[in-house]
Amino acid sequence: MLIGIPKETAPGELRAVVVPNDVVRLVKLGATVTIESGLGAGIRVTDSDYEKAGASVSTDRKAVIGNSDIVLRLRKPSTDDVSLLKPGAIHISFLDPFNEKPLLQHLAAHGTSAISMELIPRSTRAQKMDALSSQASLAGYAAVILAAERTDRVLPMMTTPAGTINPARVFIVGVGVAGLQAIATAKRLGARVDAFDTRPTVAEQVKSLGARFFEIDLGETGQTKDGYAKALTEEQLQKQREGMAKQCAISDVVITTAQVFGRKAPTIITRDMVQGMRPGSIVVDLAIETGGNVEGAELGKEVEINGVRVFGLENMPGRVAVHASQMYSANLYNLIEEFWDKENKLFKLDLEDDIMQSCLITHQGAVRREL
Ligand code: NAD
Question: Which helix (H) or strand (E) holds 340?
Answer without folding.
Answer: strand 340-341
